[in-house]
UniProtKB/TrEMBL annotation:
PANTHER family: INNER MEMBRANE AMINO-ACID ABC TRANSPORTER PERMEASE PROTEIN YHDY, MEMBRANE COMPONENT OF AMINO ACID ABC TRANSPORTER. It is found in: Cell membrane. This is Amino acid ABC transporter permease. It holds the Pfam family BPD_transp_1. Keywords: Cell membrane, Membrane, Transmembrane, Transmembrane helix, Transport. The chain crosses the membrane at residues 20-43, 64-82, 185-208.
């Protein structure tokens, strides 16, 4: 093992650049999946005729497909249909779709957890259904949904490593490249990657536990 060589500034900068791309992919995917999941989950909860059933089929289909297959499909199949995306955006779109479907179920469950009596009381006081949903149900549901959502975002961050299969220069891809230069660099590079993932994920885990404690 050659720690001094592996952590020489050019190699360290190479790994940190990969980690930056990992964070960029994760950050964009978290935002997009949250928006998408909230919309889909709300539509499922409202049980709009036909539309809710269509959304349910889409969500269940995506949730039961491997994320790697979705990324492959977007990066390899869509270009053949005239829709071309870089490896970066293929990963972001794939993660956003997959995690959005997961979050949709979290949102739907969170909305359903609100007592029916509150809905009836709000409606009887003259509020419309949308006013009740936006002003009464959603704020309470978001508090209950926060811990499982943070846990899902932790999984999302770890899932960015799957982009190595389409050669996106994220952290694990750069670890692989550096390890290919010298076998002595493999363990130091993997250890650094483990530390970087751990710091971010552990921080998010602390946030999730504190949110859960507040809810309790």
């Amino acid at each position: 093992m050659d720690f001094s060589g592996a952590y020489a500034w050019p190699n360290l900068r190479f790994l940190l650049h990969g980690f930056l791309i990992t964070l960029q992919v994760a950050g964009l995917s978290i935002v997009f999946s949250f928006v998408l999941g909230t919309v889909l989950g709300t539509v499922r909860y409202t049980r709009i005729p036909v539309l809710s059933q269509i959304v349910a089929v889409i969500v269940d289909t995506i949730r039961n497909l491997p994320l790697l297959l979705i990324i492959f499909f977007i990066h390899i199949v869509l270009p053949q249909l005239g829709i071309k995306m870089s490896g970066f955006w293929s990963t972001v779109v794939g993660l956003s779709l997959f995690e959005g479907a997961m979050i949709a179920e979290i949102v739907r469950s969170g909305l359903k957890s609100i007592e029916r009596g509150q809905v009836e009381a709000a409606r009887s006081s003259g509020l419309s259904y949308m006013q009740t949903l936006g002003g009464i149900i959603m704020p309470q549901a978001l508090r209950r949904m926060s811990p499982p959502m943070v846990s899902q975002f932790i999984s999302l961050l770890k899932d960015t490593s799957l982009a190595i299969i389409i050669s996106l220069p994220e952290l694990m891809h750069n670890v692989q490249i550096l390890g290919g230069q010298s076998f002595d660099y493999v363990i130091p590079a993997l250890l650094l990657a483990a530390v970087l993932y751990f710091v971010i994920n552990y921080t998010l885990s602390i946030v999730a536990r504190r949110l859960e404690a507040r809810m309790t």
